[in-house]
Design a protein that fits this description.
heterodimer, A: mainly alpha, 10 helices, about 0% strand, globular, B: alpha/beta, Rossmann fold, Alpha-Beta Plaits, six-stranded mixed β-sheet, 14 strands, about 30% strand, binds adenosine-5'-diphosphate, binds magnesium ion
Chain lengths: ~290, ~350
């Protein structure tokens, strides 16, 4: 076969993998045969976690909801929902397909590109996360009366930041999926651990400035930091972090773009390496939980 | 290696690294496959027969690109499984029996549809194949059932159906009837046979530890034990090796005297099972005359003959003759090597 037709095959198979996985993800995520459970999942959970934050803020800071810091915290927390669903969601797909559904081996024996399959599975996760994020933001605006205004925001900055960040999150999910693939046991918890660590360092609920200096460097090296900063700047129209304020909006976008590109290349290479390792060690159909 | 073969392996081997136990310094390894040379012709229904742990699944995993070999090489449809796994996947499919995989939230039809899409089938062909396969496995009336609600057997059937959806050039079935009831097994076996016969050029590799299944279905059978292929031929030719031997099954009142049989000249292989309430003795004898001495020995040991049967050789006898123990009951053999 010519290299041309091989390329065409690969391209078709990648597109197909993405498309079918998107469909599959949606079937799984939108299984709202139990509307009550779905309500809890999609609405009550994000609202509850937002309320926890509100109470913690009121107890610790004893400040009002109108304080800019509170808007900062609230937005960071809301958008962090994407990290949990998209990044962890994609990495969980490997664990789920392998251990829970027992189907990963059949997926791997089919002519698909698992890398794009995983990205496809992330689409539905992104959509359900969006429901939760929108509800959280609406709750903050309408009930808590937090002073942010999505109509008056910097739209260009917001959407550019938003999509670049989502891309970066999905690619980070692939990196974690690779780790899950080559980790026989506890592969599912790696995502949670990483998300927890990132929560601490990327300025999700407090400005980086409050961290000790060495830890600030960790924060500055994470694309998520710039993602949250960009989103907040777009909505609040100012930065409340003296550390990040000197960085212009354009630089923020350039950093995000660069990070996404690097993550794209890194995830492609890393995931392929993990697949190879998994086949070497016989982990594609490893069953540990059941 | 030439293109004529559907599957070809040369010195194929696989070693697993085992977890080091506490206190052990050297990592332990397990040889699951060793020096496997095999050639499966296009259009063949080829069987791989061996007891649990023989290495059958390991070989299938390697050929379906899920596991890398640690030595040797393998071609599937003329394509190197390590060099170009994606091209191999375009031509194969695989079913592991005894598995209940699938997305519980999807219906039977949706589970199957998803795979037709992975294989790039058009809508029309996909519908046709799904209908056809649901009919074969008897799940037509369950097509709208979420697979979560299927019984274990039904899930296995769904997985079986999945294996045929892309009409693969080469199909791998790993113990396809494992755990299924007799009637279902019958239906699936018949379909397997038909599938290969009616589609010239299609190749099917089936592993099993059921002797009768291998005997009935396969054009050729490779007998595998402890990672090595011990013999490979048509079932008839394999059994012909024992043509000159006489095979007897005796049932006696409980006996505890097996080593006496080993002393008897003319006993090539002998296996004893303690069944509930009686002893079962299986002999492969060089000639029938030895039987007299065996009966004497039984009597001398205080046993009474309950039944005596002369059998035509089965593949099990071939296996016993090759490795000196029975199949699937590795724990009970009392081996006598002559
Ligand atoms: N992932 C693995 N790690 C370690 N040993 C394994 C693994 N998979 C199989 N084995 C061992 O390899 C041998 C062959 O197994 P398998 O190929 O499953 O045999 P079969 O399918 O014939 O029952 C067995 O001894 C089994 O315990
Ligand atoms: Mg097996």
């Amino acid at each position: 076969m010519s290299t041309e037709s091989i390329k065409m095959n690969n391209w078709h198979e990648s597109a197909r993998s993405f498309r079918v996985a998107t469909w599959l993800g949606w079937q799984i995520e939108s299984n709202w045969t139990e509307p009550f459970l779905f309500m809890i999942y999609a609405i009550a959970r994000p609202v509850a976690s937002a309320l926890i934050l509100v109470f913690m803020y009121m107890v610790i800071a004893q400040g009002g909801m109108g304080h800019p810091l509170f808007a900062y915290i609230y937005l960071g927390n809301a958008f962090y929902i994407y990290v949990a669903s998209v990044m962890i969601g994609i990495s969980w797909t490997v664990t789920d397909d392998r251990e829970h559904y027992g189907i990963l081996k059949y997926i791997y024996a089919a002519p698909i590109q698992v890398y794009f399959y995983l990205l496809g599975r992330g689409v539905a996760k992104t959509l359900t996360a969006t429901v939760a994020v929108v509800i959280t933001l609406a709750f903050g605006m309408l009930v808590l009366r937090i002073p942010y205004d999505f109509l008056a925001m910097n739209h260009a900055l917001f959407w550019a930041t938003f999509f670049l960040g989502l891309g970066a999150l999905a690619l980070m999910g692939i990196l974690l999926a690779g780790v899950a693939l080559i980790t026989a046991r506890h592969s599912g918890f790696i995502g949670e651990a990483v998300a927890g660590a990132l929560y601490l360092f990327c300025g999700a609920v407090f400005p980086l400035d409050v961290l000790p200096q060495p830890l600030q460097y960790i924060g500055l090296s994470l694309p998520l930091t710039y993602w949250l900063e960009g989103l907040r700047r777009a909505v609040l129209r100012e930065s409340i972090s003296p550390l990040l304020a000197p960085i212009s909006n354009e630089i923020i976008l350039v950093i995000l773009l660069g990070a996404t590109l690097v993550l794209g290349l890194a995830s492609l290479g890393f995931y392929r390496w993990c697949e190879h390792r998994a086949k070497e060690k016989g982990l594609i159909d490893m069953q540990t939980m059941y | 290696m030439s293109q004529r073969f559907a599957i070809q392996t040369e010195g194929l081997g696989r070693v697993y690294q085992l977890k080091r136990k506490r206190g052990e310094t050297a990592p332990k390894t397990l040889v699951a496959l060793e020096g496997v040379d095999s050639e499966v012709k296009q259009g063949e229904l080829f069987g791989l027969l061996g007891p649990n742990g023989a290495g059958k699944t390991t070989l299938i995993k390697i050929l379906t690109t899920l596991l890398l070999p640690t030595s040797g090489r393998a071609l599937v449809d003329g394509i190197d499984i390590v060099q170009d796994p994606q091209e191999v996947r375009r031509r194969i499919n695989m079913v592991s029996g005894g598995e209940t995989c699938g997305y519980g939230l999807l219906t039977v039809e949706e589970n199957l549809w998803m795979f037709t899409q992975f294989y790039g089938l058009t809508d029309r062909v996909a519908r046709e194949r799904i209908n056809e396969m649901l009919e074969v496995v008897g799940l037509s009336d369950r097509r709208k059932t979420k697979s979560h609600f299927l019984s274990t057997g039904m899930k296995q059937k769904m997985n079986f159906a999945r294996g045929f959806l892309n009409d693969p050039q080469i199909l791998f079935l790993d113990e396809p009837t494992l755990g299924l009831d007799v009637q279902t097994s019958r239906v699936l076996r018949d379909f397997v046979k038909r599938w290969v016969r009616e589609r010239p050029g299609k190749t099917l590799l089936l592993t099993t530890h059921y002797m009768a299944e291998a005997d009935e279905l396969c054009d050729r059978v490779a007998i595998i034990d402890k990672g090595k292929i011990l013999a490979c031929d048509t079932p008839a030719n394999l059994k012909r090796r024992l043509q000159r031997a006489s095979i007897f099954k005796l049932q006696t009142t409980p006996l505890e005297m097996s080593n006496r049989f080993s002393d008897l000249p003319g006993v090539s292989k002998f296996i004893e099972h303690q069944r509930n309430g009686h002893t079962e003795l299986n002999f492969i004898l060089e000639n029938e005359n030895v039987l007299v001495k065996i009966l004497d020995a039984v009597q001398a040991g205080g046993g009474h003959l309950l039944s005596l049967e002369k059998r035509e050789p089965t593949l099990e006898d071939v296996f016993i003759d090759l490795v000196g123990r029975g199949f699937g009951d590795e724990e009970t053999p009392l081996e006598v090597e002559k």
